[in-house]
Amino acid sequence: MTLQPIYSETTIKTRIAELAATLDERFSNRPPPHIIGVLKGGFVFVSDLIRAMSVPVTVDFIRVSSYGAHMQSSGSPQLLELPTVELKNRDVVIVEDIVETGLTLRTIRASLLIRKPRSLTSVTLLAKPSQHQVDVSIDLVGFNIDKEYVVGYGLDANERYRDLPYLAILETPQS
Ligand code: IMP
Ligand code: MG
Known about the structure:
alpha/beta; six-stranded mixed β-sheet; three-stranded antiparallel β-sheet; 3 helices; 23% helix; binds inosinic acid; binds magnesium ion
C-alpha cells in the first residue's frame, strides 16, 4: 500500500474557507443552522468547517453503517445513531466526508426529511461523480475526484489513516 497525496493541508483549508463563506451567506440573518456530521469519516471536516464559519451553529453527529471493514459499498446503509434534537423548522446541514454511490446520503436525507426541517443542505468534502448510482441532491462539494480510494483527513481504510492532515490516494499493489 502506498499513499499518493492529492490535496495538501493548505489546499483543504483554502477550499473549506470557500465552503464556509457560502454557508455563512446562506444562513446569515437566520437562527443557527443545525450541522449534522456523519461519523466517523466526517469528524475532521466538521470540526474545521464549523470553525471556518462565522455564523453560530449547533452540532450533532449521526452514524451510518455501510462499508464495515470492506472497501466496497454494501449498498444498504442504515442509520445507527439518530440526531438528538428537534429538527422541525430548523435549517439542517448534513456534512459528509465522501459521496460515492450516493446511497448513504440518500438514506440520510430521507430519514431527516421525515422530521420536517425548514431546509436540508448537503455538504460533502469529496464526491466521485462517475460512481453515483442514484440521483442525490448535493449542494456543496469540496473536491470532485475520480473513482480511486482516498484516505486521510478523517477518511480511513480499515480504520487507518484518519489522522493524516492531508488527503491521499491509497494505492494497492494490484491497482
Ligand atoms: P456511498 O453510499 O457509496 O456514497 O458511500 C459513502 C461512504 O463510503 C462514505 O461516507 C465513506 O464512508 C465510504 N467511502 C466511499 N469511498 C471512499 C473512499 O475513497 N475512501 C474512504 N471511504 C470511502
Ligand atoms: Mg461516510
